[in-house]
Amino acid sequence: MDGLNLDALLLTGSANIRYLTGFSGSSALALVTIREVVLITDARYETQAVDQAGAVARIDIQPQSLWAGLWPRIAAATGVHVIGFEASHLMHRDFQRLLESGSRWQWRPTTDIVEVLRERKDPEEVAAIRRAGEMATKALESVLSRVAPGMTELAVAGMLEKALRDEGSEAFPFPTIVASGPRSALPHAGSSVRAIEAGDLVLMDFGAQAGGYCSDVTRTVVIGRADARQREIHDIVREAQAEALAGVRAGITGQAADALARDYIDRRGFGARFQHSLGHGLGLEVHEAPRLSRQADAILPTDAVVTIEPGIYEPGWGGVRIEDDVHLGHAGSEVLTHFTRELLEVA
Fold first, then answer.
1. How far is residue 131's CA from residue 266's CA, in Å, rounded to a whole number?
2. Average pLDDT for 228-254
3. Average pLDDT of the chain?
4. Three-class SS of residue 240?
5. Cα(314)–Cα(186) distance, integer angstroms
């Protein structure tokens, strides 16, 4: 804030508010000044706000509008004239509030002030992601033996989500993806009513949440016996991921990390079929900084947690993706999710 000549910063992004205060409710504003943090929320969260954020923030409970409570708080703050707001998280109707009800102050758009802090995980954050990863892999292990031809993708997704809950997952970081047969060629397919058939590739992308922190895991299996082409594509993806897991580390660019897997897939003749980035940061949100992509020229910071998820997708045939979560520590990179990467034949 000092470097940007800001007297205060208004936070509206829920993950950023949680990161700075600990508050996990769905309705809040946070005003950060040089002297204090004020958390403004409504009466539904009075007890929760005190429990989660009372040690670091002044709690202001508003009976109706959070915004109505914001203006007197700013007015009471000493020396506040220039206030930053989160350009990526403020809705247009709320921006209008700043221009109208907040017109006595100068407002400046900011980006990624808190997000940059969130890139580097402390040991407690890494431990939470590790727990979330263990929940995810245990859930997958319990479900695979029950997957059978004739089940719909939605049914398998439901089984997986129940298993995640049984393992202690607080929530689902994103809608569980179960994509079978030709639909597995859709990198972000939603689970559907399609019935899984013998011989299908089945791609499962899912995650757990522990202490607010997310895991993100993908495995691709075959229903019944795998054919030669399925084995070939799976082997290429597995080896590409192995190359990336061995080479990714703090201090290289996201672009260089992406190339570890992409160059291998390209050498094997499938470069055009790897249609997304190698990975992304992981934390309170399932997609956050840093990025591992062809366009990411920023350095991967020490203590980031990232996904490594190469894939090959052939329209009309199917696709394979293998994904794990990795901590980029001072002493090297550590994989946080442990489940076989060999091609499994189930049912």
1. 34
2. 98
3. 97
4. helix
5. 9
The pLDDT assigned to 293 comes to 97
* Local structure of residue 193 (DSSP, 8 states): S
Q: How far is CA 243 from CA 34, 218, 237, 240, 333, in A?
A: 46, 17, 10, 5, 13
Q: Hey, what's the torsion of the CAs at 163, 340, 218, 241, to 10 degrees?
A: 160
The rounded distance, in Å, linking the Cα atoms of 214 and 206 is: 10
DSSP bridge partners of 288 = 281
Angle 126-1-117 from CA coordinates, rounded to 5°: 10
Q: How many C-alpha atoms does 222 have within 13 Å on its Cβ side?
A: 19
Average pLDDT for 21-28: 96
Q: Is the pLDDT of residue 241 over 90?
A: yes
- What is the mean pLDDT of the segment spanning 263-275? 97
Which residues make Cβ contacts (< 8 Å) with residue 7, sequence separation at least 6? 1, 33, 34, 77, 79, 80, 81, 82, 83
Mean pLDDT, rounded, for 113-128: 97
Sheet strands (E) in 137-292? 177-180, 201-206, 209-210, 213-214, 217-223, 279-281, 288-292
Q: 40 with 66: CB under 8 angstroms?
A: yes
- Residue 64 is predicted with a pLDDT of 85
Which residue type sits at 166?
A: D
The tens digit of pLDDT for each residue in 174-196 reads 999 999 999 999 998 999 999 99
Which 3 state secondary structure label does DSSP give 27? coil
Name residues whose C-beta falls within 8 Å of residue 30's C-beta, 6 or more positions apart in sequence. Answer: 10, 11, 16, 17, 20, 21, 23, 37, 38, 39, 40, 57
Give the pair of three-digit tokens for residue 268.
């094997």
Q: What is the pLDDT of residue 48?
A: 98
- Comparing CA positions, the residue from 60, 59, 66, 77 lying closest to residue 8 is 77
- DSSP per-residue codes, 257-295: HHHHHHHHHHHTT-GGG--S-SEEE-SSSSSEEEEESTT
Q: Which helix (H) or strand (E) holds 319?
A: strand 318-321
Number of H helices, E strands in the chain: 9, 19
